[in-house]
From TrEMBL:
NCBIfam families: spore_YkwD (TIGR02909). Keywords: Signal. Residues 1-23 form the signal peptide. PANTHER family: SCP DOMAIN-CONTAINING PROTEIN. This is SCP-like extracellular. Residues 34-77, 92-135 form the LysM domain. Residues 42-58 form the HTH cro/C1-type domain.
Amino acid sequence: MKNRKLALILVLGLLVTSLFGFAGTSFAGWNINVTTYVQPGDTLKLISDRYGVSVDELIQANNLKSTMIYAGQPIVIAHKTATQSEQTVSYQKYTVKSGDTLYIIAKKLGTTVNKLVSINNLKTYSLNVGQVLYVPAGAANQAVQVPSQAQPAAPTNTTATVNGMTADEQQMLSLVNQERAKAGLKALQADMNIVKVARLKAKDMINLNYFDHNSPTYGSPFDMMKQFGISYGYAGENLAGASTVQSAHTNLMNSSGHRANILGANYNKVGIGIVDGGKYGKMFVQMFTD
């Protein structure tokens, strides 16, 4: 499987955020690359904690001359290949289960995503049920028991639907395709499988009171799509919180990162999930694939 480079665009403001992924190259000696854009208040330490890498690794991967960074600066997160000495350490096998992500496994076994990537020389975050991973010896036995949780059910909505979509979702799809028509782009086709995933993500953000691309339940949007059988070469995600569809759409179109996803020429399908609730009134998730 070819390497994928995931680029994260975080835009100023609390109500909207966008993410997109595309094929790319890798740095010599490193496997998975994630490009994140520095948020106001970020430090290298905060970024290192967020992505499970060390400050020194961030400095090395980005050829930084100091620890000074600025809002909007692109920072590459590169997970390094295991060295031979690391590979000679004693490990145990762990078999991937349904719903597992690297984030969930690392948390459950008391290790880090970076270590799992390094030990197993992974070239993608995607996992398959039954896949065998190597974990530090004893980690599997020392894992804390995590109470099992049922998958959140897709929210019910009594609003009239069109082709399985709620009226709000259909309205947003229409607004998106109007923008694409103005730009001379073909309309996106609603994919109900992606719609269901987008609804789950919106519901998860409301239930767990967070607003972020990375879900504590499902991991990254790319992990989540893979978990639910959504395949892609290009993929992206927009998030918004607002009281109405029109205001959410306006906010997204006023942000260059979100507008780039909405007008992405590589995208053919979209799943729009809108759930009532949360401090903004409604939570909006747009997931794009090719």
